[in-house]
Amino acid sequence: MSKNNINGKSDSNTKLKTLKKKKAMWAYIFLVPQIIVFFVFSAYPIVMSYVYSFYEWTGIGPLDDFVGLGNYQQLLTSPRFWNSALVSIYYILGTTILGVGGALILAIILNDQKLNGKGFYRAIYFLPVVTTTAIVGIIMGNIFGINGFVNQILLNVNLIDKPIPWLTDPFFAVIILIVIGSWKGLGINMVYWLAGLQSIPNELYESAQLDGAGFWSTLRHVTLPLLKPMAAVIILLSLVSGINAFDLVKTLTNGGPNFATETMDLFIYNFAFSSQLGGGQVRMGYASAAGVLLGLFTFVISMIFGAASFGKQITNLRGNKRRKGGVKV
Amino acid sequence: MKKISWFIFSLMTVLLILSACNSDEETEGDSEEENDDVVTLTFWNRYPELRGGFEDLIEQFEAEHPGIKIEKQEVPEPETQLRTALSEGDLPDMWTNIVELAELMEVDAVKNLDEIFTDDVKDQFQEGTWFENGTTADGSVYGFPLASPRSKAMIMYYNKDVFDMLGLTEDDIPASWEEFKELGQRIIDESSGAVYPIVWNNPGWANEQLVSMMGTAITPEVPWQENYKEGVPQVLSEGKVESAKFLKDLLDEGLMAPQSVEIGLGEAEATFSVGQSAFLWSGDWVGRQLFVESEFENWGVAPLPTKDGNPYYFHAGSEATSIRVDNETEHEEEVKTFLEYSLEHLHEVVYVNTGAGLPAKKEVGGEPPFEQYNDIMELENELAIPVPKPAEFNPEVVEFNKAYRNKLEVGGIGDVVVGYITGNINDLEAEIEKIDQDMKDAFLETLDEFPEVSQDDYIYPNWEPLAPYTIDKYDELR
C-alpha cells in the first residue's frame, strides 16, 4: 500500500468522522427543546410528587413538615383509598372489555368491502372521541337522571314502574360510567383495529375462501391470529387510558354517592384541591402519595399485561436467536 | 414549478411574520397608551349571588375613578384556582375569600388592612364580624367584611303561586315535621301529584348544614361539629340522625321531588320557581337568585320545620365572607381607593340593592328589590346565633385544628347523609359514629402534640345554646 493511499484513506476517515460529528451535533440541537420540555413538564413534576409525598403540605409555603412514610401509611389503611382503587379497577377492566371488544366487532363490520357508507359510519363512531369528556358527562347526567330520557322511555314502555336511580346507586353508577367510558373510546379503538385489519393481505382471505373457509373460520384462523400483536397494543392503551377517568367521573357522579364512584384520580384531586371533598383540609402531600401509588399501580398493570402478552413473543425471539447461533457453531 | 412554489411559500411566510409584527406593535402601542392613563386591578369573585351587585359597584366606581379599571372574573372552581395562583405567585389584586386566613398568613400572601379599618371604622360593623382566622389575625384586619356574621342560616321558601292554587294560606305553613308531612300529603293529593311538597339538593355540604340546623332543635348543644360543653368534636347527635331520617322519609314517601338526590341548588331553585314544588330549603342568598335569576317574585319565607316545632339555630360567623388583598399587589394605592369607596358603597349596592344577603355593615341604606328581604333579615338575625369560637380564646387552636383535621378521611357527615338518603347506607348511626370516633381520636391524639392547646380551650361552661355568646363571655372565663 503506498503512502499516498494511506494518507488519502486517513483523510477520508477524518472527513467521515467530522461529518458524523456534525450530524450528531445537529441531532442533539434538534433534541434540546423536547428534552427541556420533558424535564420541565414531565420529569420535574414526577420527581417533585415523590418529594411532596413525604411531607404534610397544603401546596402553599415551604416544605417544612416532614412526615416520612406517614402519608403512605395513612393511605394504605384508608378504606376510602382502597374503595377508589377498586372503582378504578372496575372501570379499567370494564372499559377495556367493552370498549376493545365492541370496537373489534365494529371494525370487522366496517371493514367489509361490500358495505356502503363506511366513511359516514366511521365518522359517526369517531365523533365521541373528539367530543369534550366533561360535556359528555353533563349531557349523560341529564340522560340518565331520575327524570332523564332513559327512565322516561322505560316508564313509557312499562318496563319499569318507578325510575331507576342510575347515578345514585353505586352499582348502576359504575356500570353507567363504564358504558359511557367505553362508548367514548370506541371510535379510537375502532380506528386501531381497522388499521390492523387493513394490514392483513387480501391473498390470505382469498386462499381461505378457495379452501372453503366460511366467515367464522376465516375470523378464527386468519383474522384474529394476525391481529394478536395489534390487540396487545390496543388492550394496553385501553388499560392505561382507563386510569384517567377524572373528567367523566367528576362531571357525571362527582364520586358520589358517599364516595362510592370515586376513582383514584378523583381521590387525588379531592385531597389536592378541595377542602370540602377531602378530609376538610387541602393536603397536597397526601394527594401526592396517592399519585405515586397510582403511578406504581399503572406500572404494575402495564408490566403484568406486557409480560402476559409480549412474553411469549420475546421467548420466541430468544429461541430463534439461539437456534441461529447453533447453526453457526 | 418547484422554484415558484418555494417563492410563494417564502413570500407567504414573510408576509405572515410582517403582519404579526405589525399587529403586535399596534396592540402593544394601544395597551401602552392605555396603561399610561388607566390602572387595571384584577378581582376574583366566587359568590354567584354577588355577581350582579359587584358589576353595579364596579361600574359606579369606574365612573367616579376613570383612572382605575376593575377587571372582575367569576371563578367557578375558586379553591383550585386560588391555590394554583398562590403556588405560581400570580394572585389577583383582590379576591373573595376561599383559602383559610392562617394558610395565607403563613406565606405572607395577604395584605394587612389596619390602615383602612381603624377602630372607628370597625365599630360600624355588626358584632361578631371581627374574628380570628376569619377577618383578623392577631387582632389585625386581613379581610374586608362582606356578609353579616348573623346570616347563612337555612330557611324555608314557600311558593305563593302553589299556595294560591291549592287554597293554602300562611297559617298552613308547617312548623313541625309531622305538620310538614300532613301538608305534603295534602299538596300531593290536591295537585294530583303535579306538585311536590319539597325539592332538595345533593351536595354533601348542604346536607350536613341542613341536618345540623334541624338537629339543633333536638340536640342544641351540638351546633356544628363540636360540643362546647364536653370540649370534644361531635358529629353524632340524636338531632342529626333524626333529621337525616326525616329527609329519607320524605323521599321514600314521595313527598320530596325524586331528582333532589342528584341535582344542585340552582336546579332546585328552578324547580321551585316553576311551581313544581311548594317549598325550598336554602340560605338567605336564594331570595336574590329567585328574584333575579329565575325572575320569580311570588314567594315567602319561614323557619325550617323541626321535629316538634322547637327553635333551631346556626352558628353565626360560619365563614368570613370577605375580600382579601394580595400582599404583593403593584397597585396598593388604587386598591386602597377601591376599598375606601367600597366601605361607603359596597354593602348598599352589592347586598341591599340586590337582596343578595345581609351586609356586614350596620345602618346601611339602599332599597331592597323585593319586599321579602326584610323578612329574610329578621329570620337570619333570629336564627344565626354566635357560639364560642375557640380561636378567640386561644389563637393556637387554629394550627391545632388544621393538624387534627389532617388526620381525617372525611371532613364531615354530609356525604354519609347523602348515601343514606339515596339508600346506599343502611345503618346511618353506625356510619356517623365511625366519623365521630375518628374525629375524637384525631383530636385527642393531636392534643398531645400541641402542649399550648388543651381540651379546656373547647369547654365553655358559661355557654347556653340558643343564647348569643358575646365577647364579654370569653372574658368571664379568662
UniProtKB/TrEMBL annotation, chain A:
Residue ranges of every copy of the ABC transmembrane type-1 domain listed in the record: 81-305
Membrane topology according to the record: Multi-pass membrane protein
Bilayer-spanning residue ranges: 25-47, 89-111, 123-150, 170-195, 226-246, 286-311
Keyword Ligase: no
CDD domains per UniProt: TM_PBP2
GO CC entries: plasma membrane
Keywords of the record: Cell membrane, Membrane, Sugar transport, Transmembrane, Transmembrane helix, Transport
Protein location: Cell membrane
Main localisation: membrane
Protein's GO biological process: transmembrane transport
Assigned protein family: Belongs to the binding-protein-dependent transport system permease family.
Record PANTHER family: ABC TRANSPORTER PERMEASE PROTEIN, INNER MEMBRANE ABC TRANSPORTER PERMEASE PROTEIN YCJO
UniProt-recorded name of the protein: Multiple sugar transport system permease protein
UniProtKB/TrEMBL annotation, chain B:
Leader peptide range in chain numbering: 1-22
Pfam families: SBP_bac_1 (PF01547)
Protein name: Carbohydrate ABC transporter substrate-binding protein, CUT1 family
Keyword Signal attached: yes
The entry's keywords: Signal
Domain of life: Bacteria
